[in-house]
Specification:
With about 325 residues, this protein is mainly α. It contains 13 helices and no strands.
Length: about 325
C-alpha cells in the first residue's frame, strides 16, 4: 500500500509540474488536458493508480525500440538535410560564378565597340597629374559607360540587379586598364616608398610576436595566433585591381579575425581595441607588397563610396598601418 501511495504521489506531482509549465507557456490546450488528467487521477484509488502506472511503464518499454528507431531516423534526416544544404550552397556558388562570367563576357563584347573611347580615356588619365582630377575624369567616363550600358540592346530586358552587375564589371574592366597609372601615380617614387615600408615590416618580423608588449594583444586571444586565414586574405589583396575588391579583401580579413576573437572570448564582444592589435600582427606576418599605395589608391578612388561595415574595417585597417609606421 505504501508503494502504491508513493508512486501515486510522484505521478500527481509530475502532472502538476507539467501543468504549471503549460500555464507559464500559455499553452491552453495542454492546460485543459492536464487539468482533466489530474481530475481523473484524483478519482482513482491508490491501487488503481499503481495499475495505471505499471501499464504506462509497460507501454513505454514496449515502445522503446520504436523510439530508438525514430531517433535514428531523425539523425539520418538531419544528416541528409545537412548534405542538401551544402549541395544548395555549391549550386548557389556555381550559379554566382556563371553569372559573373556571363556578365563579364557581355561587358567585354560591349567595350569592344568603344575601344577608341577607352583608349582616349586611358591616355587622358595617364596625362593627368592630380588625384582629384584623375578621380573626376574616371567618374565622368564611368557615368557615360553606365548610360550606354542601360541603353544597349544586350541589357534591354535586364533588371536592376543585372544592370548593377554590368556596371561593376565595366568598372573592373576600366580599372584594370588604368591600374598602373592610378595605383602608382608617381611611378618610381611610389615603388621606392612601398619597398622601404615593406623592408621595414620585414625587420619587424624578426622580433615581433603576439606576446610583444608594443602590440598589447589581450592574453585571451594570443592562443589563436598567428591567424593564418586572415593572413591569406590579406596576402591576396594585390590579386585584385578594382579598389572595391581590395577593400572587400580587407573586410574579409577583419571579419575572419573578429569571428575568431568571438570564439576565444564568448563572454564579451570584441571591439576596435581588440581588433587593431591583432590586425597589426597579421599585417606583419602577411606583409603584402605596396601597402601604402593600397591605402592611397582606395582613399583616392573609392573613399566617398565606403559605408557601413566596410567603413569600420577600413578605419581599423588604416589605423593599423599608421601604427606600423611607428614600430621600430
Amino acid at each position: 500500500m505504501n508503494e502504491s501511495a508513493s508512486l501515486s504521489e510522484l505521478l500527481i506531482n509530475f502532472l502538476q509540474v507539467q501543468l504549471f509549465e503549460a500555464i507559464n507557456l500559455h499553452d491552453q490546450m495542454v492546460v485543459s488536458q492536464l487539468h482533466e488528467t489530474l481530475r481523473c487521477m484524483k478519482k482513482l484509488k491508490a491501487d488503481s493508480r499503481l495499475v495505471l502506472f505499471t501499464a504506462l511503464e509497460t507501454d513505454y518499454n514496449r515502445r522503446e525500440p520504436y523510439i530508438t528507431y525514430l531517433v535514428r531516423c531523425r539523425q539520418s534526416l538531419l544528416a541528409t538535410l545537412s548534405f542538401l544544404d551544402k549541395q544548395i550552397q555549391r549550386i548557389d556558388s556555381f550559379k554566382g560564378n556563371c553569372k559573373y562570367y556571363f556578365t563579364s563576357l557581355c561587358v567585354k563584347l560591349f567595350l569592344e565597340q568603344y575601344q577608341d573611347d577607352v583608349r582616349e580615356f586611358v591616355n587622358n588619365f595617364q596625362n593627368t597629374s592630380l588625384t582629384d582630377e584623375k578621380n573626376e575624369l574616371l567618374e565622368h567616363f564611368l557615368d557615360q559607360l553606365y548610360e550606354r550600358i542601360s541603353q544597349h540592346p544586350i541589357w534591354q530586358t535586364a533588371n536592376d540587379e543585372q544592370l548593377e552587375d554590368a556596371y561593376n564589371a565595366a568598372e573592373r574592366s576600366i580599372m584594370s586598364e588604368i591600374y598602373i597609372y592610378a595605383f602608382y601615380p608617381h611611378r618610381d617614387a611610389d615603388l621606392h616608398r612601398d619597398l622601404v615600408f615593406h623592408q621595414h615590416i620585414e625587420r619587424l618580423l624578426e622580433f615581433i610576436t603576439e606576446d610583444h608588449e608594443a602590440l598589447q594583444i589581450p592574453k585571451i586571444y594570443r592562443s589563436l595566433a598567428p591567424w593564418p586565414a586572415a593572413q591569406e586574405e590579406l596576402a591576396s589583396i594585390n590579386a585584385y585591381k578594382a579598389p572595391q575588391d581590395k577593400l572587400r579583401c580587407i573586410q574579409r580579413c577583419c571579419s575572419n579575425i573578429m569571428d575568431l576573437l568571438k570564439i576565444a572570448n564568448e563572454a564579451s564582444v570584441p571591439g576596435a581595441d581588440d581588433l587593431v592589435p591583432v590586425l597589426v600582427f597579421v599585417m606583419i606576418k602577411a606583409n603584402p607588397p605596396s601597402l601604402l599605395s593600397t591605402i592611397e589608391y582606395i582613399n583616392g578612388f573609392y573613399k566617398n563610396r565606403i559605408s557601413g561595415e566596410e567603413q569600420y574595417c577600413w578605419m581599423q585597417f588604416s589605423a593599423a598601418v599608421e601604427f606600423l609606421k611607428t614600430l621600430a
